[in-house]
Amino acid sequence: MAIPILGLTGGIATGKSTVSNLFKNFGITVVDADLIAREVVAPQTPALKEIAKQFGPEILLDNGELNRAKLRQIIFKNESDKSWLNNLLHPIIRQEIINQLSEAKGPYVILDAPLLLENDLDQLCAKTIVVDIPTEQQIERAASRDNVSKEQIIKIIKSQMPRTEKREKADLIIDNSGSIENTQNQVLSIHNSLLSN
Question: pLDDT per residue over 6-17, tens digit each?
């Protein structure tokens, strides 16, 4: 029997990685969509070869890796290039996510995906958890962590699904605005309730 899949998501700097690591500490398998997105465009992969064919060899760094900064510039300027890239990568990433989820062992598995709700990955999940903090705190944390201007952070937040909508779609909400102990207790409570089901 397949084990339950819990989707884990949250906006920039909400502390989703912290929560993900807390689940890992309980020995729970975490399938990381961001990590998979990087792996599918590693040097010599079919996807990276397609990208180089589409955008030219200058999209690669000297070591054969994808020049992410250059690719980002291209797709932010051109909507059709962005669509082409999404059409190439999304099915590959989704398939790899499904493969890793199906191989997971344990009482349940976590699917950690920043765009879980935006990319309809919540359809793979029995329940979804949203890690949430107030927007002002999000801006402060992201600006100090990423060394990026507050204006830039606000743009990123506006490009993501609104916080209120994420909260409405969530089955469970982890409030990460307080102490790490407070967050640990919320994760422990979710973990225990899943074990008792």
Answer: 999 999 899 999
Measured CA to CA, the distance from residue 6 to residue 191 in angstroms comes to: 11
- Cβ neighbours for 118, distance < 8 A, ≥ 6 positions apart: 160, 161
- All residue ranges of the chain with pLDDT < 50 are none
Query: Which residues, at least 6 apart from 35, have a Cβ–Cβ distance to it below 8 Å?
Result: none
Q: What residues contact residue 22 under an 8 Å CB cut-off, 6+ apart?
A: 183, 184, 187
Q: Considering just the CA atoms, what is the radius of gyration of the chain in Å?
A: 18
Answering whether pTM is above 0.85, one says: yes
Q: What is the pLDDT of residue 1?
A: 57
Angle among Cα 12, 29, 116 to the nearest 5 degrees reads: 35
Cβ–Cβ < 8 Å for 29, 135: no
Three-state secondary structure call for residue 11: coil
